[in-house]
Write a structure and sequence with these properties.
- By secondary structure, the protein is an alpha/beta fold.
- The chain has a domain at 5-262.
- It has seven helices and 19 strands.
- It has helices at 10-20, 30-43, 76-79, 129-135, 368-376, 381-394, 403-418, and strands at 88-93, 96-97, 108-110, 138-144, 154-160, 165-176, 181-190, 195-206, 211-218, 223-234, 239-246, 251-260, 266-275, 280-289, 295-304, 309-318, 325-335, 341-350, 355-364.
- The protein has a ten-stranded mixed β-sheet with strand order 2-1-5-7-9-11-13-15-17-19, covered by helices on one side.
- Strand 1 (88-93) and strand 2 form a beta hairpin.
- Helix 2 (30-43) runs antiparallel to helix 4, helix 5 (368-376) crosses helix 6 (381-394) and helix 6 packs antiparallel against helix 7.
- The longest helix has 16 residues, at 403-418.
- It starts with 9 loop residues before the first helix and ends in an 11-residue tail after the last helix.
Amino acid sequence: MEQGLDKLSPAIRNYVSEALSSDAGPAVLSDFRSEGKKVLIETLPLSRSERWKYTDLRRYFAKPKKLADAPGDIDRKELERFLLEGYARVVFIDGFLSTELSDLENVDWGPLDRKIAGRVADIKTTGLVALNSVLLTDGFALRVTNSHKQHRPIQLIFLTSDKFCGEIHNRITIEIEENSNATICETHGAIGNGTGLCNYVMEILVGKNALLRYVVHQQAAKKINHIVARAGRIDQDAKFIGFSMLEGGVLSRSETTLSLTGVGSEAKLSGIALMRGRQHCDVTTDIMHEVSRCNSEQVFKNVIDGHGRAVFQGRVYVAQDAQVTEAHQLNRNLLLSKNARADSKPELIIHADDVKCSHGATVGDLDEDALFFLRSRGITENIARGLLIRGFAAEMFEILEDKNVVKYLDDVLEKWLVSSDNDGEVAQP
């Protein structure tokens, strides 16, 4: 398993060697660790990998890190600001499931489901999935059945405490059964100023004629490296509608791979990233059209201030047999400072003939004419800038149907607009 270590730099070699020798976690997960160890060296994300061209993790791997060994203490009152009204909830603290803080009434859940786990997320191609497998310490299986048509929406909450200093490697499997309808919100937050790496893997199956609405809000601590790999399979006539708001962490990566495996399946992905200070945010997507008559749509926006950097890598793959395909993707970037940076790489790989596909990207600053118009009406420059930024970002909320979620994210946006960044520069409200 350790063949190839000599090809790594000494610092990274130490990290990988320690990971390969780790046997942390329950014995029931030992097969995950064995599978991950076989491919870890070749899959570890370094800059030579095209998928990690814009996001360099080598500095993080320069020193071996310890796994989180116990959850910190979080009061119920501290949890409340993350809660969505009317949602069942699954709460993880520092990588450990807290049944005390969770509300699992009428939720079909249990330990990792081996029918899904390890079969949707490819350990050979999907970034840090192999590392997640090697160091996996806890997980959770969630299932929504047709009998639960009137079930409550479900919130998955992942929090780090002030005590946290290390690594988290969790895996969640989600199965939406045939003809089911589900809403799931994935929330990442921090109580205090923990440091380290959060590396989550979400494996999702959406059954025939099912609908999954999936919302993500990521607000990790300032010194957290936050990475989530989501892999999903969408069956015949099923729909996946996803939205994300990303604003936390010193470095974050949101990676989504969806395979449209059933005729008539559909995927819609959209999101907004809010970056400032010296934050780095990477949104990477892969939509795989494997069969005919499938549709996909992607719209992602970035608001970047200070020395922040935003990356969008969006790939659409259309197989030869995937005729009558429609796929579109768009990335728009708003730069609020001369030091802000955006990297955009939309990509189409098409092997079929009967398709309608498009991609595009824009990078710009605030519209000077619009700013002048508002100021000519007596609005101060700061307020005018804030209105234009809010209009650019809040437009993305239109895809959301849950008013509680819209209000929650709208409050997050307002707080971001008036807060200070993390390298001393004051944000423009």
